[in-house]
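TA notes, week 10

Several of you asked for a full example with nothing omitted. So below is the full record: C-alpha coordinates for the whole chain, then the designed sequence directly under it. When grading your own attempts, check the secondary structure regions first.
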Protein backbone atom coordinates (compact mmCIF):
# COMPACT_ATOMS: atom_id res chain seq x y z
CA UNK A 1 0.00 0.00 0.00
CA UNK A 2 1.00 3.55 -0.44
CA UNK A 3 -0.29 6.28 1.89
CA UNK A 4 -0.23 10.06 1.65
CA UNK A 5 -0.85 12.24 4.73
CA UNK A 6 -1.34 15.90 3.81
CA UNK A 7 -1.98 18.77 6.19
CA UNK A 8 -2.90 22.28 5.08
CA UNK A 9 -2.16 24.64 7.98
CA UNK A 10 -4.01 27.57 6.42
CA UNK A 11 -7.27 25.62 6.02
CA UNK A 12 -6.48 23.30 9.00
CA UNK A 13 -7.39 20.38 6.74
CA UNK A 14 -5.84 16.94 7.09
CA UNK A 15 -6.26 14.43 4.26
CA UNK A 16 -5.21 10.78 4.29
CA UNK A 17 -5.15 9.10 0.90
CA UNK A 18 -4.32 5.44 0.28
CA UNK A 19 -3.58 3.41 -2.82
CA UNK A 20 -3.82 -0.40 -2.59
CA UNK A 21 -0.64 -1.12 -4.56
CA UNK A 22 2.93 0.11 -4.63
CA UNK A 23 4.03 2.12 -6.61
CA UNK A 24 0.90 4.00 -7.54
CA UNK A 25 -0.25 7.48 -8.35
CA UNK A 26 -2.11 9.43 -5.69
CA UNK A 27 -5.90 8.94 -5.89
CA UNK A 28 -7.94 12.11 -6.29
CA UNK A 29 -10.33 11.34 -3.40
CA UNK A 30 -8.89 11.07 0.14
CA UNK A 31 -9.84 8.12 2.35
CA UNK A 32 -10.10 10.42 5.38
CA UNK A 33 -10.56 14.18 5.42
CA UNK A 34 -10.75 16.10 8.70
CA UNK A 35 -10.75 19.79 9.56
CA UNK A 36 -8.66 20.06 12.73
CA UNK A 37 -6.17 22.68 13.85
CA UNK A 38 -3.00 20.76 14.72
CA UNK A 39 -1.27 23.89 16.03
CA UNK A 40 -3.29 23.52 19.25
CA UNK A 41 -1.91 19.98 19.73
CA UNK A 42 1.66 20.15 18.42
CA UNK A 43 4.44 22.10 20.13
CA UNK A 44 5.85 25.08 18.24
CA UNK A 45 9.58 24.27 18.44
CA UNK A 46 10.21 20.54 17.86
CA UNK A 47 7.99 17.81 16.42
CA UNK A 48 8.84 14.18 15.68
CA UNK A 49 6.97 12.33 12.95
CA UNK A 50 6.87 8.55 12.60
CA UNK A 51 4.88 5.44 11.93
CA UNK A 52 3.64 2.55 14.00
CA UNK A 53 2.06 -0.79 13.21
CA UNK A 54 0.77 -3.86 15.01
CA UNK A 55 0.37 -7.58 14.48
CA UNK A 56 -2.43 -9.92 15.43
CA UNK A 57 -1.64 -12.78 17.83
CA UNK A 58 -2.46 -15.40 15.20
CA UNK A 59 -1.39 -13.68 11.98
CA UNK A 60 2.19 -12.62 11.43
CA UNK A 61 2.91 -9.78 9.07
CA UNK A 62 5.76 -7.48 8.17
CA UNK A 63 5.44 -3.74 7.80
CA UNK A 64 7.88 -1.79 5.65
CA UNK A 65 8.34 1.93 5.30
CA UNK A 66 10.25 2.04 2.04
CA UNK A 67 10.41 5.79 1.84
CA UNK A 68 8.77 8.98 2.87
CA UNK A 69 8.83 12.60 1.90
CA UNK A 70 8.20 15.56 4.19
CA UNK A 71 7.84 19.26 3.45
CA UNK A 72 7.07 22.09 5.83
CA UNK A 73 4.83 24.78 4.29
CA UNK A 74 4.14 23.21 0.93
CA UNK A 75 3.60 19.96 -0.89
CA UNK A 76 6.15 17.19 -0.27
CA UNK A 77 8.18 15.95 -3.23
CA UNK A 78 7.04 12.76 -4.93
CA UNK A 79 9.04 9.63 -4.16
CA UNK A 80 11.54 8.41 -6.74
CA UNK A 81 10.80 4.66 -6.76
CA UNK A 82 13.98 3.79 -8.62
CA UNK A 83 16.08 5.19 -5.75
CA UNK A 84 14.19 3.19 -3.16
CA UNK A 85 15.31 -0.15 -4.60
CA UNK A 86 18.97 1.01 -4.90
CA UNK A 87 19.28 1.98 -1.27
CA UNK A 88 21.00 -0.87 0.60
CA UNK A 89 19.52 0.12 3.97
CA UNK A 90 15.99 -0.27 2.63
CA UNK A 91 14.51 -3.75 3.12
CA UNK A 92 13.48 -5.40 -0.13
CA UNK A 93 9.89 -6.52 -0.44
CA UNK A 94 9.39 -10.23 -1.09
CA UNK A 95 8.46 -11.13 -4.69
CA UNK A 96 5.13 -12.58 -3.53
CA UNK A 97 3.63 -12.07 -0.13
CA UNK A 98 1.95 -15.18 1.24
CA UNK A 99 0.67 -15.67 4.76
CA UNK A 100 3.25 -17.50 6.81
CA UNK A 101 2.29 -20.87 8.23
CA UNK A 102 1.34 -20.64 11.85
CA UNK A 103 3.96 -21.72 14.33
CA UNK A 104 3.39 -24.51 16.85
CA UNK A 105 3.33 -21.94 19.64
CA UNK A 106 0.57 -19.98 17.93
CA UNK A 107 -1.50 -23.10 17.29
CA UNK A 108 -0.92 -24.20 20.87
CA UNK A 109 -2.20 -20.87 22.18
CA UNK A 110 -5.16 -20.81 19.79
CA UNK A 111 -6.31 -24.33 20.70
CA UNK A 112 -4.95 -25.09 24.16
CA UNK A 113 -6.10 -21.94 25.94
CA UNK A 114 -9.81 -22.24 25.00
CA UNK A 115 -9.82 -25.99 25.75
CA UNK A 116 -8.12 -25.40 29.10
CA UNK A 117 -10.67 -22.70 29.93
CA UNK A 118 -13.57 -25.04 29.15
CA UNK A 119 -12.02 -27.83 31.27
CA UNK A 120 -11.66 -25.46 34.23
CA UNK A 121 -15.28 -24.24 33.96
CA UNK A 122 -16.67 -27.80 33.65
CA UNK A 123 -14.52 -29.00 36.59
CA UNK A 124 -15.77 -26.16 38.77
CA UNK A 125 -19.39 -26.93 37.84
CA UNK A 126 -18.96 -30.64 38.64
CA UNK A 127 -17.32 -29.78 41.97
CA UNK A 128 -20.25 -27.54 42.87
CA UNK A 129 -22.77 -30.28 42.03
CA UNK A 130 -20.78 -32.79 44.10
CA UNK A 131 -20.64 -30.43 47.10
CA UNK A 132 -24.38 -29.75 46.86
CA UNK A 133 -25.19 -33.49 46.89
CA UNK A 134 -22.82 -34.02 49.80
CA UNK A 135 -24.48 -31.19 51.70
CA UNK A 136 -27.94 -32.76 51.18
CA UNK A 137 -26.76 -36.16 52.46
CA UNK A 138 -25.15 -34.44 55.45
CA UNK A 139 -28.46 -32.72 56.23
CA UNK A 140 -30.30 -36.05 56.07
CA UNK A 141 -27.71 -37.62 58.42
CA UNK A 142 -28.14 -34.82 60.95
CA UNK A 143 -31.94 -35.32 61.00
CA UNK A 144 -31.45 -39.04 61.71
CA UNK A 145 -29.09 -38.26 64.59
CA UNK A 146 -31.65 -35.90 66.12
CA UNK A 147 -34.33 -38.56 66.06
CA UNK A 148 -32.30 -41.60 67.28
CA UNK A 149 -29.30 -40.04 69.01
CA UNK A 150 -25.62 -40.02 68.04
CA UNK A 151 -24.26 -43.18 66.36
CA UNK A 152 -21.27 -43.45 68.74
CA UNK A 153 -20.75 -43.52 72.49
CA UNK A 154 -17.86 -42.38 74.64
Amino acid sequence: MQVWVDYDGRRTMQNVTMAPCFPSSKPSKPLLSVVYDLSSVLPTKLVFAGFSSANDLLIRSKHYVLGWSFKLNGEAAALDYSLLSLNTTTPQLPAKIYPRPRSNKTILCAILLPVLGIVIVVSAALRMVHMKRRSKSRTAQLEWEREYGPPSFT
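The helical segments are 81-86, 104-148. Use that as a sanity check on your answer.
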